Amino acid sequence: MTTTPLRVAVVQGSTRDGRLGPVVAHWIREHAAGRPDMTVDLIDLAETPLPTVFPQLGQAPARAEDRELLAAVSPRLADADAFVVVTPEYNHSFPASLKNAIDWHNREWHAKPVGFVAYGGFSAGLRAVEQLRAVFAELHAVTLREAVGLQGVWGQFDPEGRAVDPAADTAAKAMLDRLAWWATALREARAKTPYGG
Question: What is the arithmetic mean of pLDDT over 124-131?
């Protein structure tokens, strides 16, 4: 039996100047892209900025520029079977740019799994992940227990973007294995019974 590869959207949440996010996102992207069961779409929120002023609830954006910005991201999230959110920890939470991207969308997240790659200093970004779990639960998404946390991230990658600690690669594989299980199960469930939300 031939199975269509899972479509995984890697969402890189940091938009800060001098950010390390792209290094982390490309690292996890390479892990996912190297698997036969996954295809990967990397969405960098600095390269695909979204509007920050929302229309009235239930209304489409009035400005054509806002609709164009959303058109560069929304269909890609809708097409995904699963997500990997790459986030730093800012002030014990996650970046405003990431919350903005989450809030612009709703059904795109429904009944799909979300894995996390977090990074930071002492906490390895995991306080940001704990807050994201509550946000994604409201959006009917399934967050994975297995997450990748990179402590002291500035020393975690070599100049070629490879992890210097093999434990990081092990954690990435464990998270992606679990993501594949949930993504397959939920894709089959959505095909059998569309998710109402």
Answer: 96
> Residue 151: beta bridge partners?
120
Q: How many CB atoms lie within 10 A of CB 72?
A: 13
Helix, strand, coil fractions of the chain, as percent rounded to 5: 40, 20, 40
Q: How many helices (H) and strands (E) does the chain have?
A: 6, 6
Share of the chain above pLDDT 90, in %: 94
DSSP letters along 139-170, please? TT-EE-S--EEEETGGGSB-TTS-BSSHHHHH
- CA nearest 130: which of 89, 171, 100? 89
* pLDDT per residue as tens digits for the range 60-97: 999 999 999 999 999 999 999 999 999 999 999 999 99
CB 113 within 8 A of CB 183: yes
- Note whether 15 and 95 are within 8 A (CB): yes
Q: Distance between CA atoms of 87 and 170, rounded to whole angstroms? A: 19
Nearest CA to 85 among 38, 24, 19? 24
Residue 38 parent element (H or E) = strand 38-44
pTM: 0.96
